[in-house]
Design goal:
The chain has about 260 residues and is of the alpha+beta class. It has two domains: about 25-110, Hypothetical protein, similar to alpha- acetolactate decarboxylase, domain 2 (60s Ribosomal Protein L30, Chain: A, 2-Layer Sandwich); about 115-255, Hypothetical protein, similar to alpha- acetolactate decarboxylase, domain 2 (60s Ribosomal Protein L30, Chain: A, 2-Layer Sandwich), CATH 3.30.1330.80. Helix content is about 15%, strand content about 35%. The protein has helices at about 10-25, 35-45, 125-140, 210-215; strands at about 30-35, 50, 60-65, 70-75, 80-85, 100-110, 115, 120-125, 145-155, 155-160, 175, 185, 190-195, 200-210, 225-230, 235-245, 250-255. The strands form three sheets. Strands 7, 8, 9, 10, 13, 14, 15, 16 and 17 form a nine-stranded antiparallel sheet that branches. Strands 1, 2, 3, 4, 5 and 6 form a six-stranded antiparallel sheet that branches. Strands 11-12 form a two-stranded antiparallel sheet. The termini are far apart.
């Protein structure tokens, strides 16, 4: 039986779908993402996009995100998913609850890291330029996303956990930069608990969006999305402002 000829419009749609599938499957380091920063900001839709139980959780998987309704933060450390509920005044983590969902999430799996000593104290802009410079030297494509980590001390550190509640002034997380000093991020979708911990030690778990996913896994105009975890991974949240001390170790993915 002769095959049916696709109408031009249907052929175009089919080609776009195939191209999108090929692009998605070509992301390095098993990078996966759910939800979309910019779309969430524009629509105000903070409903769940994926069940936490359905996320990849093998060892070597690292990721960051936020729970449905912007009621808490998510961090993934070596495959282990941890949620910081906005109801906890100390930013403490717990395992995901049954049926819990993420509105935003991104992760990648790394089997080997390249350790790069941080040569001096760096404010965030200088450090992020350093990450890109070192990633390029390692052969990573700067237009593509990847996960990375930083272990050490952070002379300046401001992080938050969203609560899902509408607060005075609407200051919340996972949106555009707020104007007020120390306000971090704001999108008028959620209030947040702020934690100022200058000099804290621990690690930053980071997602670099590249041009490919800017605005999807990071805020439009930014390419870094970072969460902090203390040395015992007992507290965690979304990083707003930070600096990195000399002697810290940047960990970039090798394979």
């Amino acid at each position: 039986m002769p095959s049916r000829r696709l109408r031009p419009r249907h052929a175009l749609i089919a080609a776009l779908l195939l191209a999108a599938g090929a692009w998605a499957s070509s992301l390095p380091f098993g990078f996966v993402h759910h939800g979309h920063f910019q779309r969430m900001m524009h629509t105000g839709n903070t409903s769940g996009q994926v069940m936490l139980a359905a996320l990849p959780q093998p060892g070597g998987t690292w990721g960051v995100g936020a729970t449905a309704g912007l009621k808490g933060e998510i961090v993934q450390i070596d495959g282990r998913l941890l949620v910081s509920p906005g109801s906890d005044e100390y930013g403490r983590v717990r395992p995901p609850q049954e049926g819990e969902q993420a509105v935003l999430f991104a992760s990648g799996r790394v089997q080997a890291w390249q350790d790069v000593p941080v040569p001096r104290d760096m404010e965030a802009p200088a450090f992020e330029a350093f990450v890109q410079e070192q990633a390029k030297a390692l052969g990573l494509a700067l237009d593509q996303p990847f996960v990375f980590r930083v272990e050490g001390r952070f002379p300046h550190l401001l992080w938050h956990v969203v609560t899902g509640e509408k607060g005075p002034g609407g200051h919340g997380a996972h949106g555009g930069h707020a104007a007020g000093p120390g306000a971090g991020h704001a999108n008028e979708r959620s209030d947040m608990r702020l934690f100022r911990q200058p000099g804290a030690s621990g690690q930053l778990i980071g997602v670099y969006s590249g041009a490919a996913l800017e605005g999807a896994v990071s805020h439009p105009g930014e390419r870094f999305h970072l969460h902090f975890a203390d040395p015992g991974a007992t507290v965690s949240g979304h990083v707003d402002r930070y600096s990195v001390a000399g002697g810290a170790v940047l960990k970039l993915p090798l394979r």
